[in-house]
Design a protein that fits this description.
five-stranded mixed β-sheet, mainly beta
Length: 585
């Protein structure tokens, strides 16, 4: 006789023991029942049942990538295997079946589908430290894989999932311990799609990698030691890590290859910066709430600390650069160079406060901050001007100060703003003003607190009636056609009757009431129109009208100034007009 399988004694259900094996048709098998000691003896009962063919590892069923449907209705308990992983012991004590998958050379992710992930069979009579519905083993059916086990109640679609690195064409056996029918999802992902297998990189590395569409977002990947979510990724991502040196570092997309003269990077790639270890992560570069994602990031590293860079959002190949950036500090008004005169070219001017010293002098109004600051200059054009950092690309909270003066020694404060624009991790300022032709203006941008980093400074000329103080004069009756191609978006502080006015660009008009009843109407292309009385300094809401309220009548009091702010979307081609009408009712 040839030994088929030996069942080691493991107490279960009052001392019963069990052995399962795959039989050969018409073969004869002998079962030896032996006591555990030389003196023990007595009666016993022997039950022999047939079960499904793949409830032993030796008869596992091959499962391809994609969805796999199976059943454990007739499954029994196979030989018990202890699997120690990340200080947690997983023991295959529950009845279950086996599948096998072929390695791809990348990460294999296996997760329970939505209709079966709550069917984990827990057998409390066994001495398992933790019971997993999925446990991976190598080709010998006994050697436990180095794997990551996920069991997170916040992830409603994948209550139980495992991930492990595979070798090409290597066979791996998976024990599935769920009750009744089940459906699995089997994926091959980029090897660094999860924190545990983050790729190690060095400062000054330029990283090129493949499409993140081969990655995953279905596992909660950034948790602290209390299993609380630190970062929420809404797109596929891959992980990198490096050790801090105590210096300022920057990570940014490389979107153009000068040698190849072509774009090589997906421009929508974003970065989330974490630190710690995979079991206890915290936000390294953050703001309010959940750790934010950024298009580029800069921060002071702690020497010896492990940092993780999660790259996500890109839909194709991407490239990024991790390095210690060159510090270009314009932290003295007298240091302003020709390239710092932002009025020479409209648009976005990449800027940075890296290495700038704290600037506490000359802060406008009641604002106070000792954050790093940089200076820029504007030469007036006689036009309406907006200076803004509101594009979501900034990395820190900022204060914007605007001055007028011929020299740095004769500055006059004109305005100071912070927090006009709110993003999920920081606030950003903008200032509107009417410039005088040839007059010199200075812009000082501070980091609030100890904030520093990169941002875009936007210089934009605006429509003549872009601001309330420059409202165009109208009369009753009249039909007004307007274009808002060069208009800006007003702050919602001018909201009237809960009608938001900060979604589309708008322009201002005014007329003087005569005591008669006025009828207002506008075309369907107008998104909102708000009417005020009083003055630009003290606007009083009369009515707020949204796009579905295109008509309104009221008595315009004799001699009272009425201001109208009208918004409309700008067509993609940047042209087009909109229309409103004033008439006596």
């Amino acid at each position: 006789a040839t030994c088929v399988k030996e069942a080691n004694y493991v107490p279960c259900n009052g001392g019963n023991n069990q052995v399962t094996w795959a039989t050969t048709l018409n073969a004869v098998y002998y079962i030896v029942v032996q006591s555990t000691s030389s003196t023990a003896g007595g009666e016993f009962s022997l039950q022999i049942d047939t079960s499904q063919s793949n409830d032993v590892c030796d008869s596992s069923i091959a499962a391809p990538l994609g969805n796999f449907t199976g059943s454990n209705n007739n499954a029994t308990r196979d030989t018990i295997r202890a699997c120690n992983n990340d200080a947690t012991q997983f023991i295959t004590t529950n009845p279950g079946s086996w599948i096998n998958v072929q390695g791809t050379g990348d990460l294999i992710l296996i997760s329970a589908a939505c209709d079966s992930h709550n069917s984990i069979a827990n057998d409390d009579s066994q001495a398992a430290t933790t019971t997993s519905s999925l446990t991976p083993f190598e080709a010998d059916c006994m050697t436990c894989m180095d794997f990551v086990h996920y069991n997170d109640d916040n992830n409603q679609c994948n209550d139980d999932a495992i991930a492990f690195l595979s070798s090409t064409n290597q066979t791996y056996h998976i024990h599935i311990a769920v009750s009744n029918n089940f459906e699995l999802n089997i994926q091959s992902l980029l090897f660094n799609a999860i924190c545990k297998f983050a790729k190690v990189i060095q400062l000054e590395d330029i990283i090129t990698t493949g499409m993140t569409t081969n990655s995953t977002t279905i596992i909660p990947s950034a948790l602290d030691s209390n299993r609380q979510e630190v970062a929420d990724f809404d797109s596929p991502g891959v992980w990198y890590k490096f050790i801090g040196t105590g210096t300022i570092v920057e990570v940014a997309s490389v979107v153009h290859d000068d040698d190849a003269d072509e774009d090589v990077s997906a421009g929508d790639a974003r970065f989330t910066i974490l630190k710690g270890n995979c079991d206890d992560l915290s936000c390294a570069v953050g703001g309010f709430g959940t750790c934010p994602s950024r298009y580029h990031a800069s921060w002071v590293t702690e020497e010896g600390t492990t940092y993780f860079i999660v790259v996500h959002g890109a839909t194709g190949d991407f490239r990024f650069h991790l390095h210690e950036p060159e510090v270009l500090a314009r932290d003295n008004c007298d240091d302003i160079q020709d390239q710092d005169i932002v009025s020479v070219n409209s648009g976005a001017h990449p800027a940075s406060t890296l290495g700038a010293s704290a600037e506490s002098n000359g802060v406008c109004g009641s604002f106070t901050t000792n954050g790093p600051a940089v200076w820029y200059k504007i030469i007036g054009s006689g036009e309406n001007v907006t200076i803004s950092t509101c594009d979501g690309r900034g990395e820190f909270d900022m204060l914007l100060n605007l001055y007028a003066g011929d020299t740095c020694d004769s500055l006059e404060c004109m305005n100071a703003q912070y927090g006009n624009c709110y993003y999920h991790d920081h606030v950003a300022p903008y200032v509107n003003f009417v410039s005088e032709l040839g007059k010199t203006y200075y812009v000082l941008l501070h980091g609030l607190g100890d904030g520093f980093g990169f941002f875009n400074l936007h210089y934009t000329t605006r429509a003549e009636n872009n601001f309330c103080t420059n409202a165009a004069v109208s009369v009753v009756p009249s039909t007004v056609a307007f274009a808002n191609k060069f208009a800006s978006v007003e702050s919602n502080e001018f909201s009237c009757d809960n009608v938001r006015i900060d979604s589309d660009p708008g322009v201002w008009y005014r007329f003087v009431g005569s005591g008669s009843r006025v009828a207002l109407s506008f075309t369907e292309s107008v998104s909102s129109m708000t009417i005020y009385s009083g003055s630009c300094e003290f606007l009083q809401c009369v009515v707020g009208l949204s796009s579905d309220q295109s008509q309104y009548e009221w008595v315009a009091e004799d001699g009272v100034d009425y201001f109208m702010y009208v918004t409309a979307p700008v067509p993609d081609e940047g042209t087009g007009t909109h229309e409103f009408r004033l008439a006596e009712a």
